Amino acid sequence: MSEVEFAPPPTPDLExxxxxxxxNRERCYQLAQGFxxxxxxxxxxxxxxxxxxxxxxENPELLSRREQIWSHSGKLEAKYLxxxxxxxxxxxxxVVKTIGKGYFGEVKLVRKRQDGRVYALKRLFKxxxxxxxxxxxxxxxxxxxxESDSEWVVKLFTxxxxxxxxxxxxxxxxxxxxxxxxxxxxxxSEDITRFYTAEIIMAIEAIHNLGYIHRDIKPDNILLDRGGxxxxxxxxxxxxxxxxxxxxxxxxxxxxPAPPSGRPQNNRHSVNIDEISLTVxxxxxxxxxxRSRRLVAYSSVGTPDYIAPELFSTNGYSFEIDWWSLGTxxxxxxxxxxxxxxxxxxxxxxxxxxxPHTLLFPDDIQLSYNAVHLIRSMIxxxxxxxxxxxxxxxxxxxxxxxxxxxxxxxxxxxFEPPLTSDVDTSAFPVDDLPQEEGFGDGGGSGPxxxxxxxGAEDPEMSLPFLGYTFKRFEKSYTA
Length: 479
Prior knowledge:
Elements: H1 19-57, H2 66-85, E1 93-101, E2 105-112, E3 118-125, H3 126-131, H4 135-147, E4 156-161, E5 165-171, H5 178-185, H6 190-209, E6 222-224, E7 230-232, H7 249-255, H8 283-297, H9 320-335, H10 345-353, H11 355-358, H12 369-378, H13 392-395, H14 459-462, E8 470-471
Antiparallel strand pairs: 1-2, 2-3, 3-5, 4-5, 4-8, 6-7
Helix pairs in contact: 6-9, 9-12
């Protein structure tokens, strides 16, 4: 019997279908890729757990308990599989307090009804994500936190969504953030600065090892856990690849004319800030500036004080931009304000671009030679910046002589938050935030929203976020 010959398939002409077809094709590709990537990862993790269990059962001391241990492990695996199939929704949680608000969403302290555990639940409004073209930020943060299992990065447990919002269930870090610490203590000693800087180096290195650039290292995104040790958060600006930086918001601002004298644009402070007026004698002024800057951090604009000059150019950038940001934080911890603080965003940008002439150290603040050298080495040109060849060259700087980077979490932190309960929010500026019962308005019409009828799912609010759901395997399931 002769073989049947078929005509060759037609060559697809994607350009004739319009942009929507090309977009949907790309989204389907990403969804399928993410689905199978997660499936393969879970299968590998399950295989590894089985191998570890078999090795453990080879111990002669466990001979009499082998059947019991094997049976118990099987039940835990079944419990985990049920956990994966369980749909997350707002009704699974009760709100304790609002602990953060931003332009695109909010963060609430919540307690899980099933087991009473406490979490931080971050909610992002889909309408704002779409209208402000923030979808890449959402995906970047989700992917970075999902891939990370580092003790230096805030842990993401699960992500879910309803018709109006995206939700990220994360560990609650009751120590607040580094900005709150700077507001409270105003200035750090070199020993305390060395401790926090060493921990931040470990956190940035963990992210870089995954192939991510954070791009938004600042005191607001450095959180403190129950023991006072740091964890890195907020990966909305992170990117997982090297790229040429397209014409950005920062470049556009640089091209604007300077504000007229006496009428500054984007005035973000209640006091005049420049390199001349910033001295030890006006710490009250500095703290007022910090509080004003925190309000800016909650806006859609953000704060530019810590960003590297490469972000203003079209020459591209890489991992070393995070080390510039750390250099500015070290400066702020030791001096009391960021090195390029100014009255307007425009002036801050200009100072950053002209950093060789604007990086100044006040005469009335005494710093060691190693501290100044470290700062100047990190606030430097990309091809000469300390850290361009990896975190190891920063760790080897004389400023960190004697620091055991692998044992930092075994050292008692300089400041331990005095917590009174598992829902203590005294380290957060909750008094400045409106507190509402439950999840409030804007929470969507999904099944978890209390007091609101379940509405029909809107494809425009669901299709862009396909594949967003994530669940982390918790060690408690195999304990």
